[in-house]
Design brief:
With about 250 residues, the chain is α/β, with parallel strands linked by helices. It is built from 9 helices and 10 strands. It has a 6-stranded mixed sheet with strand order 6-7-8-3-9-10, with helices on both faces. Helix 3 packs across helix 4 and helix 3 runs parallel beside helix 5. The radius of gyration is 18 Å and the shape is globular. The C terminus is likely disordered.
Length: about 250
Amino acid sequence: MIRIESLSKSFGAVDAVRDLTLDVPAGELFCFLGPNGAGKTTTIKMMCGLLRPDRGRVLLRGIDVQEDPRAAHAITGYIPDSPFLYERLTVRELYDFTGDIFRIPRAEVARRRAGALVTFGLQEHASTLVKDLSLGYRQRVIYAATLLHEPEVLFVDEPFVGLDPASIRLIKDLLKGAARAGAAVFMTTHILALIEDVADRVGIILGGRLVALGTIAELRAQTSSGGRLEDIFLQITGGANGAAGGAG
């Protein structure tokens, strides 16, 4: 479903992503790890068409993101680490506006909206302005709107920042559910314990290069770090920056 071929991107003298090749099939929840500045966010932005690679290409269900961005966008959902929302719209209006963007018939949008309000616990907030929502509820609105057009490919950059346990559980279950329904889910997060709970496979990027790839069991077998993903990550990266999260 997602195919990355020899992807590279530089910013001046800094090689943010270097010769990255990777496949993520439909139905897989893939977690992308790396220290601060390793190239995670740059990779996702190229995959979404927000950045143009210097070399290489990204294919989503066989669609070249650079050659046919409209078709790629139609099957893609993207939740950045700092998403933009139209704060003067109500929850209902934002949902309907998203449906218009994807040219979904209004009757179908209304049907899906009714279900989404229940799923995300937003029934009592349908008429609330987005600006008046708490962070947790804003995140729920983002997911509801992003999943409206039932994307086949879902990119999620740091999905759990600032969320309460109930919201984390909800988002975690939604991401796993999207993968079970056949979507390819590509996620970055610095919360390694959650990755152990949701990831089908893990890729580790360091200095713009993919340095490890496999299931957690496979990565464990490649190292002498024991059973914890935190230990595996620190051994593979040499403890770079001391953390897995951050931009880049």
